[in-house]
Amino acid sequence: MSKKSHPERFRTSNLEPRTSNPVYVCRFTFAHCLLPIAYFFMIEVFKTDVKDSDQANMLIDRIHKIFADYKANFDLEDCDNILRVKCSTGIVQSSSLIYLLKGFGFNAEILPDVIPATVVI
Questions:
Q1: What's the fold here for domain 42-110?
Q2: Are 32 and 38 a contacting pair, CB within 8 Å?
Q3: End-to-end CA, the chain
Q4: What are the boundaries of each domain within the chain?
Q5: Exposed e or buried b for every residue in 37-65, given b needs 16+ CB within 10 A?
Q6: How far apart are CA 102 and CA 98, in angstroms?
Q7: Any idea which of 29-33, 38-42, 78-82, 95-99 has the lowest mean pLDDT?
Q8: Which of 118, 119, 71 is nearest to 97 (CA)?
Q9: What is the crossing angle of helices 53-66 and 94-103, to 10°?
Q10: What's the pLDDT band for 38 if we cut at 50, 70, 90?
Q11: Among candidate residues 65, 60, 40, the one with its CA nearest the CA of residue 48
């Protein structure tokens, strides 16, 4: 087995045997093998009246400063001027974001999740 066939998660050990075949050691601990890491995050989508990209950038900067775990972006080409906010550590505090935008003179409302009806034939 050549070194090139192994993925990046493997490395050659410093304690190689006296043969020509290297020893491969997994970089992860035994606990990592037993407990898979799951990432949970929430994304909330808002309809806004933000129209200018400079205003959107200012709001994104404020959101990132106030809510360190949030990643936000605007889609101003959408008819609803969408604000998407992703929280990597829990739930997006929608009312706080709406209040923040209102403080800068903008309106925002949560877009409801629309689950299309299934078609039964």
A1: Alpha-Beta Plaits (3.30.70)
A2: no
A3: 53
A4: 3-34, 42-110
A5: eeeeeeebbbbbebeeeebbeebbeebee
A6: 6
A7: 29-33
A8: 71
A9: 130
A10: low
A11: 60
Tokens of 49: 């009246």
Residue 114 has pLDDT above 60, yes or no: yes
Coil, helix or strand at residue 121: coil
Least Cα distance to 62 among 18, 10, 97, 11 occurs for: 97
The residue assigned the tokens 């020509």 is 20
pLDDT average, residue stretch 81-93: 92
The rounded percent of the chain whose pLDDT value lies above 90 is 54
Count of other CB atoms within 10 angstroms of residue 10? 14
